[in-house]
Write a structure and sequence with these properties.
Helix content is 70%, strand content 0%. The protein is mainly α and 40 residues long.
Length: 40
């Protein structure tokens, strides 16, 4: 993955303020990565 895509995924996870939101973002990321899609 290019650095910009990795940075987008990392930012989506670390910018979440609650654990519930982090879990939701993590599930979203794993789904997109499984399908080999870009973040947005």
């Amino acid at each position: 993955m290019p650095p910009s895509v990795r940075k987008t995924y990392a930012r989506a996870y670390y910018d979440a303020k609650t654990d519930a939101t982090r879990e939701k973002h993590l599930a979203w990321m794993l789904d997109r990565l499984d399908r080999n899609l870009k973040p947005m």
